[in-house]
Specification:
By secondary structure, the protein is mainly alpha-helical. It has two domains: 185 residues, HUPs (Rossmann fold), CATH 3.40.50.620; 80 residues, Chorismate Mutase Domain, subunit A. The protein is built from eleven helices and six strands. The chain has a three-stranded parallel sheet, covered by helices on one side. The protein has a three-stranded antiparallel sheet with strand order 4-5-6, covered by helices on one side.
Length: 310
């Protein structure tokens, strides 16, 4: 078992004040609630663990070793040692993510597949803002522009990263540093270290709260649209009549198709079709073409004014 380094910080007298201030921004369940928490050993996840304990949660820690670095096993040993000191349950999960393109997404899918559903993660408001920008670059719709809002698995979504790191620095525990978080090979790192700083400079202010507020507003709009479209949820792909669908406003039809044509969940959540796929699906509905191909080897076709997904 790896030795767990601890310290007595010069900021320790202020730790209680910092803790109470952060807990007021967190979205934890009631004290005594059993929860699963993902902990890599970095400052975000370690801060989540410490704040969750302060909130009175009954925590089981889950650590995923991707074996992407030669020393990754030592991270698991360290987290296990912290859990022993804190008297917290610990589970280690070993996955193998091969090097190559789209590594971040594949590693995220592997983590989700290894850990229990509903596991809490240490995503902060800064992560939310970065995700909004990443999704914008990918051409996301309203869902992608309002990530993490009201997500119970992201209890730190209103906490700033710098405040969380200051809290961890003031604690007796020393967070691990993952050098891959600095690598420009990963798109999120470039957004975090380059694009966010540029946007702050252009705007002349900190843009993270602006992006987070915008995401919350978009989420409210999404919720309202979902209410308006509640009756549409009962319309299945197979039962829908294309003659009726063609009379719908295009925005309504687009929204209905996005929900009906979501890709199967392969461990990274179920994803809606791309904007191009939705537009080509509309062509099938209106009769411009009789079929179109979708991601995942699927095919949408129309026959006798009815749709079929194979």
């Amino acid at each position: 078992m790896a030795e767990v380094p601890t310290r007595r910080s010069q900021y320790l007298p202020n730790l209680l004040k910092m803790t109470m201030g952060l807990l007021a921004q967190c979205h934890f369940a009631d004290a005594g609630t059993p929860v699963d928490v993902a902990v890599s050993g970095g400052p975000d996840s370690l801060g989540l663990l410490l704040l969750g304990l302060e909130a009175g949660l009954v925590i089981t820690v889950h650590h995923v070793d991707h074996h992407a670095r030669a020393t990754s096993g030592e991270d698991g040993d360290y987290v296990e040692g912290v859990c022993q000191q804190l008297n917290v349950g610990f589970a280690r999960h070993d996955v193998v993510v091969e090097p190559g393109g789209n590594f971040e997404a594949r590693a995220r899918a592997a983590r989700r597949g290894a850990m229990p559903s509903g596991v809490l993660t240490g995503h902060t408001m800064d992560d939310l803002a970065e995700t909004v920008l990443l999704n914008m670059l990918r051409g996301a719709g309203l869902d992608g522009l309002s990530p993490m809002v009201n997500d119970p698995t992201k209890p730190l979504r209103d906490v700033r990263r710098v405040a969380l790191h200051e809290f961890v620095d003031a604690s007796p525990y020393v967070a691990l540093h993952d050098e891959t978080n600095e690598s420009p090979a990963f798109q999120r790192n470039r957004v975090r270290h380059e694009l966010m700083a540029l946007l702050d400079d252009v705007a002349g202010r900190d843009v993270v709260p602006i992006l987070a507020r915008q995401a919350a507003l978009v989420f409210d709009e999404r919720t309202w649209l979902d209410e308006l479209a509640r009756d549409d949820e009962a319309v299945t792909l197979e039962d829908a009549d294309c003659r009726v669908l063609r009379a719908w406003p295009r925005a309504r039809l687009r929204r209905w198709l996005r929900a009906r044509l979501r890709a199967p969940d392969l461990g990274d959540g179920s994803h809606p079709p791309s904007a191009d796929e939705v537009e080509r699906a509309i062509d099938v509905v209106v009769g411009d073409v009789v079929a179109m191909e979708l991601s995942g080897g699927r095919r949408l076709s129309r026959r006798d004014q009815h749709l079929s997904l194979q």
